[in-house]
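note to self — DONT lose this again. spent like an hour looking for the file last time. sequence + predicted structure for the chain T wanted, 104 res
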Amino acid sequence: MPSSGPETRSPAAKSNTAVPVEQRNALTQLGQISFINTLPVVVPLINGAVQTDCELVFGTPSELNKKLQARQLHLGAMSSFYFLEDGDFRLFPDISIAGDGKGW
């Protein structure tokens, strides 16, 4: 999913504005990196295999990092570097897009 900027998808087709999430009456905002390696997480949400009341917000890692920092997302994917750099986030246990073994 190439990105030319943040994109949103939700059953209610809510708009993605710059208003902090706590000031909106929207669905839970879930930031998702628009790279192919995130498909195992994204596809079940998009095709309804996993039921959720989240609005998916797609973007590049830097776009999502900015939105997370500005509190414009409730939760989302981020790099471990950004997580460690900011220090104001909590991790969900046992959820990761990672490799276990030699990388090529």
